[in-house]
Amino acid sequence: MAEVEVTREGAVQTITLNRPDVMNAFNRSLHAGLRDALREARDPDVRAVVITGAGRGFCAGQDLKEFTDMPNVGDSLRATYHPNVLAIRALEKPVIAAVNGACAGAGLSLACACDVRIASDVAFFVPGFVGIGLVPDSGGTYFIHRILGVPRAFAWMASNRRLTAAEAHAWGIVSDVIDAGEFAERTAETAAAYAAMPTRAVAMTKRLFDNAGHATLEEQLEMEAQLQAAAVRTHDFAEGVAAFAEKRPPSFSGA
To answer: Does the domain formed by 199-245 have CATH 1.10.12?
Structure first.
């Protein structure tokens, strides 16, 4: 059984973490499978990516059986988690975390590295790290403080409080909570909607928000100007203007 399954439906690639017996906890094979899947997602024909989990969990974080065998934890993080988190941020298309169940530890970091998070109503979110005497890793502190702000992010990470899907929605961690019975269908609809957007404009918007966390106002204004100049040269901009003038829905190609 593959540790990671990859499927394609139209312009949507779905990456399924596939160790359901351990809530899709990370081991070396899962890291490698995710790395390969993210490389495959660079294909220009892929215009949206979904990351989800098999069974009852999204991802429970690190498989602790393997963790205790790591000779150097820092080096292991640099070799496994770091490249995949960076690969998600480097993808020039939206990445959607479809959180179908338990989301904890490095699984929470993975979800927060994505551009959009939606959750099943049976999903729940647990920091995990401090509960076993560890600190957040895999980009957790970077992304979660940007989502929640430092005071709430610290309070949550340091308390190890479990959040329901509804609480995660109220806090702004996820954008939508969906009935478990409709989750697969609604996830597919959400991903298809993103895939139908002007992909270059979406990718450049992603880059702008990544830059905004550390740029000065002058730097951000300059980056906006540069990327807007690039956006007006795209086929999708021409299509968007034509559709607006003709009072019809646009048909974006991602070009």
So the answer is: yes
